[in-house]
Amino acid sequence: METAIDGTACAGPAAGMNVIAADVGGTKTRFVFADTDAPRRILHEGRYDSREFAAFDPLLHAFLRDSGLQGESVDMLSLALPGVVDEHQARLTNLPWLLDRQDLRREFGVREVHFMNDFQASALGIPHLQAGDMIALNQAGTDPGETRVVVGAGTGLGVAWLQGDGDELRACSSEGGHIDFAPADETQIEVLRFLLETYEHVSYERLLSGQGLVDLYRFTSGVVERDVVPAQVSAAAETGDEAAQRALQLFVRIYGAYVSNLAVMFKPRGGIYITGGIGAKIQPWMQSADFIDACLNKGRMRPLVERTAVFLVTNERVGVIGAMAEAVKMRQVE
């Protein structure tokens, strides 16, 4: 029996356009195979470590093999990709991969291949989430027809925004994770000086990412080695490691300040939605006073930020949900 994308059981296959949707991440990639006539019915699903593959093609071959789909007809690939995407190609930011639409069509015999930025896909997934898929970090009213912003720290830091509703829904991507880091206090000024010893340019992504959390731990602990992984930092914080706890406090304070910058720039009356691979994994820290105090610390703009709803998305499927939703939309306009 197949399962819906929310995990509930559903019976009976549907006929229509077969689609493989993928949310490709610098660390993990999630695939789903479904039908555009019944997109919530997931026929096959797989999750892979992206860095175990030299390119996207062998990764897709692995999913086809594991799902028993090799030799089966696939009508469309709908791919959410972390990097700059154009009509023909996508060069990924945190993986040494170049994807070409025509090459994918020839290699896999797929009639249609569609690319989108991974945070465009996350934005397109937001309207399809349920109430239990997110936690309010700043309670405020929302208007779904107004601008919604999606931001997420993972392997990198992504930003996109969503405008309109229903058939008029439109998602726009950006490279907003690469704007200059602006320290908010003396400690963060010291962090900036510390990172300038390693990086020529310190963007917010240098801090609000997996490697950013590791570098913050290097700053708070004095540990020089760079082979620590983010999960080790959060695990150490749970066991009472003071340097790891200070690193996470810095991380969420910088995150809060960055989110408030987005509130001021976009005035998103539809809310700000935090996705990405890190936020949900450090949920208690994201719900702490460190995050919300830094978020609301906006001087004369504090009232504007207070009126902006901020949600932590806990459904890790949001990107692939958005990629599938876009495939359905493209099917309907054919």
Structure overview:
- The relative contact order is 0.16.
- The longest helix is centred in the last third of the chain and has 25 residues, at about 240-265.
- The chain is of the alpha+beta class and about 325 residues long.
- The protein is globular.
- The protein has helices spanning about 55-65, 100-110, 120-125, 185-195, 210-220, 230-240, 240-265, 275-280, 285, 290-295, 300-305, 320-330, and strands at about 1-5, 10, 20-25, 30-35, 40-50, 75-80, 85, 90, 100, 110-115, 135-140, 150-155, 155-165, 170-175, 270-275, 310-315.
In short:
This protein has 334 residues and is an alpha+beta fold.
Sum up the structure in keywords.
2 domains; six-stranded mixed β-sheet; disordered N terminus; 334 residues; alpha+beta; globular; 25% strand; Nucleotidyltransferase, domain 5; Hexokinase, domain 1; 16 strands; seven-stranded mixed β-sheet
